[in-house]
Amino acid sequence: MDIDIFKDILVPVIGGLGIFMLGLDFMANGIQALSVNRMRDFLAKAAGTPIKGVLAGTLITGVIQSSTAMSVMVVGLVNAGVIALRPAISVIMGANIGTTLGNGLIALPLGPLGLILAGISALVYCFANSEKIKNIALACMGFALIFYGLNLMTGGLRPLRNLPEVMSLLQTLKADSYLNLLKCVFIAAGVTAMIHSSSATIGIVMGLGAAGILDWTTAVAFSLGADLGTTVTSWMASLNLSKNAKRTAYAHISFNIIGVCITIPLFFVSIHVLGWAMQFFGGDPAVPVIVDGKETFPLVPVAVGLYSTFFNVFNTLLLFPFIGVFERVLSRVGHTDAEDAEDFSTPKFLDRKLASDFARAIPAVQQETARHLEAGAMFLDIARGSKKAPADPGEHYLATDILSRDIRSYTASLMKEDLPYEQLDLIASLIEEADFTAALTESMHQVARRVKRETFSNPAQAIVETALNKLDASLREILPTYGISGPQMPAGHVSFPEVEELRARTLALGPNAGAAERGTILALLGSIERAEILIRRIDAERKSVNRAGVVARASARRQDKQRPLGDTGLSPVPAE
Fold first, then answer.
1. Partner of 66 for a Cys bridge, out of 28, 55, 170, 376, CB 3.0 to 4.6 A?
2. What is the greatest pairwise CA distance in the chain?
3. Residue 290 forms beta bridges with which residues?
């Protein structure tokens, strides 16, 4: 039988592969648009312990159907300080299990039904007015295109069996020995690294196996390589991020490499086990089924999906007890003394157990807000180039921003319907102070960034130093325990020029400073002016409510409620 290579092979294979990958993209985009923000928030809350991390990683990856997106999300959350390294490692383990659910779906024998399902979903997508319905239709369309693309690939690959040249080449890719097994694994890892999708690689392998081009053992070997190659994406995503984000990517890589290294010696034993297990899933995958007079192997995709699931579950169970070892080893990678500094992204005083005790929760919020203010003050250290200052202003600001969100969330959780008005008023005042503190920290971050980015001439540097000293002195009004070294000042009262005077001096620099320098100083003075307004606003907010009195009365009420019924001691009820 004559084979038209272009019409019978290239068109359906390339078209099917494109439709398959487009389907993966549509499905991931649709599901992520519907739920990725909720999933991110859920992950940040759920990944508190290694076991919860594995479960959360499995669940979320099973929903969004992209281990690549999941690993990139985890790396990003670690970079933001939302998740620590230890639970992030467990989430990555769970993500590897979750992605196998998608491989199982791909193995379903829906075939040509995918086209009509895609058509119906496309019509819904085009005519829907609701963004939510559009995203659901997009996910369904992607789901359907996966099957249709896989069906096209299988049909296009089938004629290759009649080309002796191709079959002789593919004979070299037969996992019949450990050397050939390694060759298959590395080829699949390379392909996956290039296309950034283990699901796409496994889909191609399923098509080759279903068409009879690859025997089922070799197809399974390729799926092992796909799990190895998918780690490249998380590594690439972490290149310009924090050290902990890089360590999360390294955990993903090392986890899969160790799993593959352990599985390869056991591969042929596991194939025998898989062959036995396949009797519960349809029979022997090596036995062809005649469809329209042509041989096909519909159970090969099932075997590949089953093995991929088994590999990731086995790998997780094997390495889960060593999460602590992973964390200790990876935490030493690229470790510097700066990492031993205080982590401002994690609250120090906010205890959820205190949330029901108003008298104890309020002082905790005040302590945490003061700590947030101290973190913001460190931007002056950064601007002055102190060796004790955080090395990266952006990373330090990110930590303070996370702390700010935690403070506001915790404080808002204290608002109960049965609280007296004065207590609600105090909580509102603390929320406002936290908001002003966050804005002040942002302004001080801008100050540090502008000073660090520009090289100033001596006359311009003198104005910058005066402006920083002015802000330093203003900050001490609301932060008496300010521990950062201040500028050298003579004894007695020292007054600083107003911002307007510093602006005039900047404009008068003339040829002594370039336009870029003067522009930077003027922007710097704007940030300092905003910072001083916020400092005065924080001071006024603290004085707007008698905080100590409200807390004292709340504490007295609590003690009164805790007094035993038999206690006849009389004490006056504090005035409201």
1. 28
2. 107
3. 295
Residue whose entry in the numeric block shows the structure tokens 């997106």: 69
State pLDDT tens for residues 146-199. Answer: 767 766 776 676 676 566 665 566 556 788 888 888 888 888 888 777 765 676
- pLDDT tens-digit series, residues 498-552: 888 888 888 888 777 778 888 888 998 999 999 999 999 999 999 999 999 999 9
Residues 6+ apart with CB under 8 A from 69: 28, 32, 36
Residue 75: name the closest of 239, 229, 230 by CA. Answer: 239
* Torsion sign over Cα 489, 490, 491, 494: negative
Instruction: Please report, for residues 315, 496, 508, 518, 521, the alpha-carbon distance to residue 456 in angstroms, rounded to integers and kept in the order given.
Output: 56, 21, 15, 9, 9
The DSSP 8-state label assigned to residue 575 in this structure reads P
> How far is the C-alpha of 216 from the C-alpha of 112, rounded, in Å?
23
pLDDT at position 64 over 60 = no
Coil, strand, or helix at residue 196?
Answer: coil
Q: Is 515 helix (H, G, I), strand (E, B) or coil?
A: helix
Taking the C-alpha atoms of residue 336 and residue 324, their distance in angstroms, rounded to an integer, is: 20
For 386, the token pair is 């102190």
Nearest to 324 by CA among 111, 95, 546, 84: 84
What span, in angstroms and rounded, lies between the C-alpha atoms of 142 and 24?
Answer: 6
Distance CA 247, CA 26 (A): 30
Of 488, 490, 484, 492, which is closest to residue 465 (Cα–Cα)? 488
Tokens found for residue 76: 């990003």
The C-alpha atoms of residue 40 and residue 235 are separated, in whole angstroms, by 20
Note the pTM of the prediction, 2 decimals: 0.51
CA angle centred on 60, ends 56 and 65, rounded to 5°: 145
Any idea which residue has 């107003």 for tokens?
A: 498
d(CA 358, CA 547): 12
The number of CA neighbours under 13 Å toward the Cβ of 524 is: 31
* Residue given tokens 């921003």 in the structure block: 401
In the chain, the amino acid numbered 129 is N
SS3 497: coil
For residues 25 and 138, is the Cβ–Cβ distance under 8 A?
no
Report the alpha-carbon distance of residue 440 to residue 535 in Å, rounded: 7
What do you get for the CA distance between the two ends of the chain, in Å?
98
pLDDT digits (tens, 9 = 90+) for 81-137: 566 677 778 887 887 777 666 555 554 555 567 778 888 999 998 988 888 898 888
| Nearest Cα to Cα of residue 449 among 518, 507, 524 | 524
Closest alpha carbon to 186 in 224, 215, 235: 224
Residue with structure tokens 């040829």?
Answer: 511
Q: In degrees rounded to 5, what are phi and psi of residue 291?
A: -125, 115
Average pLDDT over residues 66-79: 62
Residue 285 DSSP label: T
Structure tokens at 364: 């905790």
> DSSP states of 151-192 as a string?
HHHHHHHGGGGG-HHHHHHHGGG--SSHHHHHHHHHHHHHHH
